[in-house]
Amino acid sequence: MIRLEALTKRYGNFTAVDALDLGVHRGELFGFLGPNGAGKTTTLRMIAGILRPTSGRVTVGGEDVQANPTAAKAKLGFIPDRPYVYGKVTGAEFLRFVAALYGQTGPGVEHRLGELLELFELDPWRDELTESYSHGMRQKLLIASALVHRPEVIVVDEPMVGLDPRSARLLKDLLRRFVDRGGTVLMSTHTLEVAEAMCDRIGIILGGRFAACGTLDELRQQTASTGSSLEEMFLKLTGAAPVESLDAVLEA
After folding, report:
1. Do residues 65 and 155 lie in contact, with contact meaning Cβ atoms separated by under 8 Å?
2. pLDDT tens digits along 40-67
3. Are 133 and 169 contacting, i.e. CB atoms less than 8 angstroms apart?
């Protein structure tokens, strides 16, 4: 459902994403991991059509994101890492607006947004301006907006940031149900415990390229880390701060 072919993004002489190849299949939850600056968010924004690749190709549900952006984006729900929402509209108005971008209006949309507001416990604030929403409420509204048009693919960048434990559990269950029903999820996260528990396959990106990619067992083979946790493999690939550096910082 998502395919990257030699996907590359350069900013001047700096290569943020370097000829990345990836296929994420129907019914799969793929975890996209890496340290800050590794190229994760840049990659997700190219998949969503927000950034134009320097070279390479992205397809979503068989549709080329650059050649057929409307058809590709109709299949996609994108949840960014920061909950920017128009402040001068209500929660219900925002969902209505997003649905209209996909050509969906009328009673069916009203029923759908009612379901989503109820699910994410936002219904009591449906007619309140979003500028009065907390960070977590805005995050939940963005998640709802990514689902309002019933996408086939969800791309999500740091989904748990700002969510309380109940809402985080709801989102994890929702993404798992979505995948079990044939959907596709590409999820970037720094929460390795979440990735280890939820993801069918995991890719660890470093310097714009995959350092390792596969199931947990395949990652252990690739990193020669039999029995290791995802955290141990991640740190082995990306490097951990040496203990002497920590001691130096903490010295009086």
Report:
1. no
2. 999 999 999 999 999 999 999 999 999 9
3. no
Residue 23's nearest CA partner among 198, 177, 210 is 210
Q: Categorise residue 171: left if φ over 0, alpha if ψ from -120 to 50, beta otherwise.
A: alpha
Its sign, for the CA torsion 149, 150, 153, 156, is positive
pTM of the model: 0.91
**H/E element holding 76?**
strand 76-79
Q: To 10 degrees, the CA torsion angle through 25, 230, 175, 203? A: -30
Nearest-angstrom CA–CA distance, 44 and 22:
12
Let me know: does 64 contact 52? Beta carbons within 8 Å.
Answer: no
Residue 8 in tokens: 């590359």
Cα 104 to Cα 107: distance, rounded to the nearest angstrom? 10
Answer for the pair 154, 183: CB distance below 8 angstroms, yes or no. yes
Residue with tokens 């350092």: 211
Write down how long the chain is.
Answer: 252
pLDDT tens per residue, range 129-146: 999 999 999 999 999 999
Per-residue HEC secondary structure of 106-146 comes to CHHHHHHHHHHHHHCCCHHHCCCEHHHCCHHHHHHHHHHHH
Q: How far apart are CA 116 and CA 111, in angstroms?
A: 9
Instruction: Report CA-CA distances (Å) from 165 to 136, 189, 190.
Output: 11, 16, 16
Distance CA 194, CA 172 (A): 8
**Which residue segments constitute the domains of the chain, with CATH numbers given?**
2-75+151-250 (3.40.50.300)
Contact 30, 187 (CB under 8 A): yes
